[in-house]
Write a structure and sequence with these properties.
This protein is mainly beta. It is built from eight helices and 38 strands. It has three domains: 123 residues, Serine Threonine Protein Phosphatase 5, Tetratricopeptide repeat, CATH 1.25.40; 216 residues, Tachylectin-2, Chain A (5 Propeller); 208 residues, Jelly Rolls (Sandwich).
Length: 670
């Protein structure tokens, strides 16, 4: 008898029928590449074999291969339009389900140049390729979104934790493309970040608009061991991009505050556990009443992120539940009266990922917004799970439509869970392009200043735990970082600039020169005011004349890697290192005989694998390969509050100045 895969590829249906009589479950086998026999049938067996297998064999039509491809992905590979129609119309295989690289069957048809299949998909979806978008809309670390519309402009905030500047404010005109235009806290003294552990700082912000001002509130989360551990920060500005006023910190226990203005103009703050509510002053700077529990939630586990919406005579209370990992969800309840009693929605949860094999997981913590045309959408957080099994990118922001049932309940994406491919919102606006579409990314209205205006280095970078005066400079296209003698594992460290990692495959490169007279006179460099926590000394192993400066892939003070120009014992060379938990698990130093104080570096990332290179004689030399950098993900290490995501950037360790040039990040995932 022929080999099974030979039968399929030669389209020998009679031989396959005989095979399946003897082995009824015989298609339940994989190739060495992890492709199931069922998928091979769709890709190579032809329409007749595909129909027979679907209707007579014992198969699971939901089966995906190791890369997350569905039967429809493989059907598209066949190039057979009739087979694709059969899978869509008779098997109900979804056109918009992405594999683990974010590629849907629709995307595959486009990339293969199959115009017939693309046109068929567009007809089924009711949208052209240009009228579709992919989730998440904000990639890399963009957790806990909150959104407000003012006229035709949309503004969103996300958690920033211990990163500075605090709480990015983004702007959009189409709900898909977003641009950071400012931050809620840009004064290091107001930020209160010094000494905070990774994952502490500013949690779950909310943005609202009231009487000509934008209000931002967030939980300020301190380290364990003292009281209070949680305060509620409130700040405001007449401009969405800021500057925002000096924040106040309200003393009420709980997390995830939001501000709601009732029909009579009275203002309230909501906090978890469950959804508790109390009145605040109109400027948001005082608490006026005791908290009252409105609703504990439908799932009754880790209820957080409450938001109120008044619509058509009801107060709708949206809640995140189930914890921020697998099983996260959004639920809703409603009441005719603000203070309740609230009725749980019969369709709860209105958003949850039920399929643990899909690309987008952990969907929850969302907020609804109404467009100027009366349509409704939900922004919410999610994780993308790599083929490695880790959500290295942290929590991202996604968007899906809300529809309202005849009896007045909101449903996100028709209860189908988070989408990976979705129709763009159709927004009518006064500021439109020649095709009648709303202004896109990079085109900000006159009322909002460009992000480059006044933001300086913070238009591209963020640091940790605030900024000591004189730490960073911009000289032309060069960035200067003045070290303070501390390493990235110190809770007083702050001489690093990073950007969030936005996809699973990327590279970062740059050049560094360590200035001869780079020693800086800063309090931390002199050892003044430096905290030395038990078990975490301020780089005690580094001699005063030693230093390193270069590239880093950074999660927090417990998890990072380095590739740098370094000085050890008076000799300069190339350093590569991995820091995990409380120690350097890898630390290698290669002396450069030239003694050069300049170097060029590149780190290439493919999921968990990171390959480190340094430049020499116009080419690249591989320094090291780190095969498993799972410690750069939230789930890769159990220590502290790991709520952020992988970042990459440039750093200095030691009493020197690093001059960085030609620093860039590029993405290459297929």
């Amino acid at each position: 008898m022929k080999d099974l895969f030979e039968m399929i590829r030669t389209r020998d249906l009679e031989a396959l029928k005989e095979f399946l009589v003897e082995y009824p479950r015989g298609l339940d086998v994989e190739t060495e590449e992890g492709v199931w026999a069922l998928h091979e049938v769709m890709a190579y067996g032809g329409l007749e074999m595909a129909k027979y297998v679907t209707e007579y064999a014992i198969v699971n039509m939901n089966l995906i291969d190791r890369q997350g491809n569905t039967v429809l992905h493989h059907g598209v590979k066949s190039g057979d339009l009739e087979l694709v129609k059969y899978l869509v119309e008779r098997v109900d295989s979804p056109i918009g389900q992405a594999n683990l690289h974010g590629v849907t069957p629709f995307d595959l048809a486009v990339s293969l140049g199959n115009k017939e299949i693309q046109a068929y998909f567009e007809e089924r979806l009711g949208a052209t390729a240009e009228e579709l978008y992919h989730n998440p809309i904000c990639r890399g670390m963009h957790p806990d979104p909150s959104i407000v519309r003012v006229g035709e402009d949309y503004y969103m905030v996300n958690s920033s934790f211990m990163f500075f500047p605090c709480i990015p404010v983004s702007h959009s005109r189409d709900l898909i493309h977003w641009e950071v235009i400012g931050h809620a806290i840009t004064n290091p003294e107001w930020a209160r970040l010094k000494g905070l552990e990774g994952g502490r700082g500013y949690w779950a912000p909310d943005i609202s608009y009231y009487e000509g001002k934008f209000y931002i509130t967030a939980t300020y989360r301190l380290n364990e061991g003292g009281l209070p551990q949680r305060l509620q920060m409130v700040t405001s500005s007449e401009k969405p991009e800021g500057p925002y006023c000096e924040p106040v910190f309200l003393e009420e226990e709980g997390i995830d505050p939001s501000i709601f203005t009732d029909l009579d103009g009275r203002r309230y703050m909501l906090l978890n556990r469950g959804a508790r509510i109390f009145e605040i002053s109109k400027d948001g700077r005082e608490i006026l009443s005791e908290p009252k529990l409105l609703w504990y939630g439908q799932n009754k586990k880790a209820s957080e992120g409450p938001h109120l919406l008044y619509k058509d005579g009801y107060y709708y209370l949206f809640m995140a539940e189930g914890g921020t990992g697998m099983g996260h969800r959004i639920t809703v309840a409603r009441s005719r009266e603000l203070m309740g009693v609230y009725e749980s929605c019969p369709y709860n949860p209105i958003l949850r990922q039920w399929d643990d094999k899909r690309l987008i997981q952990c969907s929850g913590h969302g907020m609804p917004v109404e467009t100027q045309d009366g349509d409704w959408y939900m922004v919410y957080l999610c994780n993308r799970i790599s083929i490695s099994g880790y959500a290295v990118l942290g929590r991202e922001t996604a968007l899906d439509p809300i529809t309202w049932t005849a009896d007045g309940w909101p449903l996100v994406n028709s209860l189908q869970g988070p989408s990976e491919l979705q129709k763009k919102p159709k927004l009518a606006c006064g500021n439109a392009d020649s095709a009648g579409a709303c202004v896109r990314q990079g085109q900000t209205p006159d009322s909002v200043e460009k992000q480059s205006a006044g933001m300086g280095i913070w238009s591209e970078w963020k640091t940790v735990r605030g900024v000591e005066e004189g730490s960073f400079e911009k000289q032309g296209e060069d960035i200067l970082i003045h070290g303070n003698g501390l390493d990235l594992n110190s809770l007083d460290y702050g001489t690093v600039l990073v950007r969030q990692q936005e996809d699973f495959c990327f590279e970062i490169c740059g050049k560094v020169r360590v200035d001869e007279n780079g020693t800086v006179d800063m309090p931390a460099a002199r050892g003044e005011g430096v905290q030395e926590d038990e078990g975490r000394k301020a780089d005690a192993s580094l001699a005063v004349d030693d230093w390193d400066a270069g590239l880093t892939c950074y999660y927090d003070e417990n998890s990072y890697l380095k590739l740098a120009l370094a000085c050890r014992g008076g000799k300069t060379g190339i350093l590569w290192a991995q820091y995990v938990d409380d120690r350097y698990v890898t630390e290698e130093f290669l002396t450069l005989e030239t003694g050069s104080r300049e170097a060029e570096f590149k780190i290439v990332t493919e999921h968990l694998k990171r390959t480190l290179y340094y430049g020499q004689d116009g080419g690249w030399i591989q320094a090291a390969v780190f095969e498993n950098t799972s410690y750069l993900s939230s789930e890769g290490l159990k220590k502290g509050k790991r709520f952020t995501g992988a970042t990459a950037g440039i750093y200095v360790n030691g009493f020197v100045t690093g001059r960085f040039s030609e620093v860039g990040m590029g993405y290459s995932c297929e």
